[in-house]
Amino acid sequence: MSTDESLRFHFEQGEELLEELNNGAGITPELLRDMTHEMNLVRRNPEGTLLVGTEGTKTVTIFLAPHSVVQCNGPVLVPTFDALRVASMVSREFIESRAHACDEAEDQDAAQNEWNALLDGLFNKTLELAEGMDELNSKFMEHE
């Protein structure tokens, strides 16, 4: 698995994803442990989580929150204390409207492709925001 590839967690395929991660070249035991932990949490409360995945080094989780909390469609970073964990939130109303539009589409193949593109876009934007925050923190630490 290259670092450019992301793996999307589908709740019904959780064990397959863990096995793929475990067999992946360069996957650290910490990432496997973190992904296992995150997926176990999501299994207990799947309604609040849109996506769990990895780009090969970090666990990425995207949560659903009311638009009044997110203040936009999202994603908006959620602070974490773990450098190998990235979390963001997106507007539940935004996601529900996009899901409804996909459900109602006549061409379900195109709708599925649109849904996958939405998830990939949110995943990639979350990583971009996290990288930007890492750079900002690094510059801040240099000035102390």
Name the poorly predicted regions.
1-12
- In terms of structural class, how would the helical and strand content be classed? alpha+beta
For the biggest β-sheet, the strand order reads 1-2-3-5-4
Shape: globular
- Give the C-alpha Rg: 16 Å
Task: Kindly give the count of domains.
Answer: 1
Give the beta-strand count: 5
Mean pLDDT: 80
Quote the beta fraction: 15-25%
Structure description:
- This protein is α+β, with helices and mostly antiparallel strands.
- It has one domain.
- The protein is 54% helix and 17% strand.
- The chain has helices at 14-23, 29-44, 67-70, 92-104, 108-142, and strands at 7-8, 49-54, 59-65, 76-78, 85-91.
- It has a 5-stranded mixed sheet, with helices on both faces.
- A hairpin with a 6-residue loop joins strand 4 (76-78) and strand 5.
- Helix 4 (92-104) packs antiparallel against helix 5.
- The longest helix is centred in the C-terminal third of the chain and has 35 residues, at 108-142.
- It is globular, with a radius of gyration of 16 Å.
- The N and C termini lie far apart (38 Å).
- The model is unreliable at 1-12 (pLDDT under 50).
